[in-house]
Predict the structure.
Amino acid sequence: PLNFTTPWPLPNSRYACKRRTPLYTPNEELLRSLAVIMRSRELEGEDRSALSYARGISVLKAYPRRITSVSQIHSLPGVGPKITSLVAQYLDTSAIPESSTILASARFQALEELTKVHSVGSTTARALYARGVTNVHEMREWVAMGNGGEVLRMALEIHEDLMIRIPRAEVELIAARVQKALDAVLPGCMHTICGGHRRGKPTSGDVDIIFTHREQGKEQGLVEKLVNYLSNDGFITHIFGVMHPGHNPFSSSSHTRSKVRPAHPSSHFDTLSKALVVCLLPPSEGGAGLHRRVDLICAPRDVYWCAVVGWSGSKQFERDLRLWAKQEILPAHGRLGRGIKFDSSGLTRLRDTQPIYVDSEKQVFELLGLEYVPPRLRNA
Ligand code: TTP
Ligand code: MN
Ligand code: MN
Ligand code: MN
């Protein structure tokens, strides 16, 4: 637990990557209330409004003391009049009326329940709701009538398991099992567990494993080999998707530039090869005997640390890393500089699209002109 009496800088940057955001904050209840409104905007497809809430909430997460007056926050970056007035309501009444209304609404409850099913995004959920599908039970009936695809059918089959969060110890056992498989299919590989686990969360919704081989290029075809191996030995029970979403400028034999727009952007926010799978670790091996979602992401050695940074999150931290790189990294890269493109598939100088190689996580921050932020302070 964090000691809130230690001095902590006020969140004075509009970029999450320039703030320090611990997992637990002194304003949890207020932030949960605000997050309900943000979630509702996401579910309704009001993306701009949702992003604006995400930004404001993220700044307040980095606020180091209990908020007792709006004078503490009204001039913080990203905190506009809307959020300020909601915080004022909260301070006056210990609640935010709009949040309570949303939480009580049948539509919000339905869209929340429907989007908890893997592969069901807010657009799908709204379309289902319009057809009278308001809960998972009705979704099953809808699928039984021949609707939906293979991924949805699989997701519903193991939905109850996937709703249960994964404790840290099991996350680590799952990663160890994957490393053992890597050692068997291609000696010389290493991995990092990323996502919420790396940010210190006590439980995770899935396991995000980034891996590479110590020799650049050797990682080619590795996703298939790994998935085949783990499927044959029964550890992988379901495969939601295996993708190679495109050209990687760092990879030695890359000639398959893909112009196809990703169908599921949340899993394709980079060009790395990956498999979205479901695994099961039996109790005899220390697991819970539950189906667990695992993301297996393969990065070439030269972009491994970019991939680790890009998959460690939080989502807002990643958003602002990309924005910061694009908008603020100008002078250091010359008169014609247009910044750097950062994502988990690498760093690219935009002026001449030259890739920039890195050899450590600290170097990613250094190249972006940022002070290093340890993963546990990236809970923006
Ligand atoms: P997730 O596994 O979706 O999220 P998470 O690990 O933070 O939380 P959970 O316990 O629920 O699994 O994504 C892994 C990381 O990938 C996330 O921390 C940040 C990055 N990411 C983005 O940058 N953009 C996105 O849209 C998503 C979905 C993830
Ligand atoms: Mn979903
Ligand atoms: Mn995750
Ligand atoms: Mn994931």
